[in-house]
Amino acid sequence: MKQITITLFVTLLLISCKKESKNTKFSGNVFGTFYEITYSSDMNYEKKFDSLFYVINKSMSTYQTNSDISKLNRNETVEIDTHFRKVYEATKIIYKETAGAFDPTIGAVVNAWDFGPEGEIVNLDSLKIDSLMLTVGFNKILRTNNTITKPKGTFLDFNAIAKGYTVDVIATFLDDENIQNYLVNVGGELHAKGINIEKNSGWLVGVENPNFDGTQSLSRTLVLTNEAMATSGTYRKFKLDKNGNRYAHIIDTKTGYPSKTNLLSISVIAKDCMVADAYATAFKTMGIEKVKTFLKSHPELKVFLIFENDKNELETLALNGFTEH
Fold it and tell me: Of 28-32, 86-90, 175-179, which range is least confident?
């Protein structure tokens, strides 16, 4: 009898261990990109994920005509939700910290260059750009409780921060469900906690090489634990002029023209993905030297840069302890 009891106990223990070492994974499409959520539980949260995606999309997607932000851009009166308020307040801080390098009101100019949801302006010239730049400036956007006030011609676009924010929302939900190990990935923006229990190690993630031919390869791998990472680049979304010059989809908020820095990819590790997402975008227009200076007073941000040198060769630069696996 004792032998049977011991055998049964060992069998149950093995079954329990096997169950605990398996992740649950959901993936799909959202916000015009992909998502993949991996976590150490057998609970099915797919419907909750879909619900959160829907609410955030309804709040801040410029690609949905009935979203709150689209209504605001049409100068309709809208009562914003909690998600919008959180992104607005974070944007206000980062806009100030970067001296306007991160500015979601650049949306009208992004559209004019045919990089946004509204479509290009035919025969775009310096006069039209100068006119559009008069509508740019996040300091012109005011929030009073749940109401936003903005200049009539200003186009607000949170796409450079909302994806990272969404990652954090999913991560917070999993935290509230007492999930100890997870990796949330929305379009390459990541938030990791704990370990990958199937491999009994930290979450191994990678930074892609900026391959203009559309192929995929990794420049660097690293273990992400209890932090978030976002990457901004110009190697997948750009235009060529008649002279073969590349124009990035990230518009310089000071000039109204596509960024012409030699930075091709910027990865930022921070506590929150929303913050990492916004700074990755801002750093694209700032350039290497300004980024290095900025990071001296922001040790909480770890940054990895991929850029072209004077010989058109790729170089990398890791700052503030951005480490390799």
Answer: 28-32
What 3-state class would DSSP assign to 65?
coil
Backbone phi, psi, residue 159, to 5°: -60, -25
Q: Check residue 254 and report its DSSP letter.
A: T
SS3 content of the chain, % helix, strand, coil (to 5): 35, 25, 40
pLDDT at residue 29 in the model: 93
Residues 220 and 304: beta-carbon distance below 8 Å: yes
Assess contact for 102 and 95: CB atoms under 8 A: yes
Would you place residue 12 in the very low, low, confident or very high pLDDT band (cuts 50, 70, 90)? very low
Contact by Cβ (8 Å): 104, 138: yes
- Separation of alpha carbons 180 and 167, rounded Å: 16
Query: Do residues 200 and 223 make contact, with C-beta atoms less than 8 angstroms apart?
Result: no
Q: Which residues contact 179 (CB under 8 A, 6 or more apart)?
A: 39, 40, 41, 193
Per-residue pLDDT tens digits for 243-275: 555 555 567 788 888 766 788 899 999 999 999
Cα dist from 222 to 39, 225, 287, whole Å: 19, 10, 24
CA–CA separation, 69 and 57 (whole Å) = 10
Cβ neighbours for 317, distance < 8 A, ≥ 6 positions apart? 288, 304, 305, 307
Angle at 30 between CA 24 and CA 34, to 5 degrees: 60
Given a contact cutoff of 8 angstroms between Cβ atoms, the answer to whether 165 and 83 are in contact is yes
- Give the closest residue to 248 by CA, choosing from 258, 256, 257: 258
Q: Which of 320, 52, 58 has the alpha carbon at shortest distance from 177?
A: 52
Cβ atoms of residues 90 and 275 within 8 Å:
yes
For 133-145, the pLDDT digits (tens) are: 898 999 999 999 9
Assign 120 to helix, strand or coil. coil
